[in-house]
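Lecture 7 notes: from sequence to structure.

We start with a single chain of 49 residues. Read the sequence below before looking at the structure.
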Amino acid sequence: LLAEGWEERRLILSSTYRDATTNQYCLTAGQFIDNGKRLLLIDIDAAGF
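Now the structure, written as tokens:
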């Protein structure tokens, strides 16, 4: 859990997968924002993991 002031937010990470377009190893991080109304997804290059 990440703490931001008194609000706690859960960061969710996917397992490592191979991207179908680029053939690179990736993982995806996700976090609900805006009081749970929106989902922020970030693709991360996992070659160094």
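The radius of gyration is 13 Å. Keep this in mind for problem set 3.
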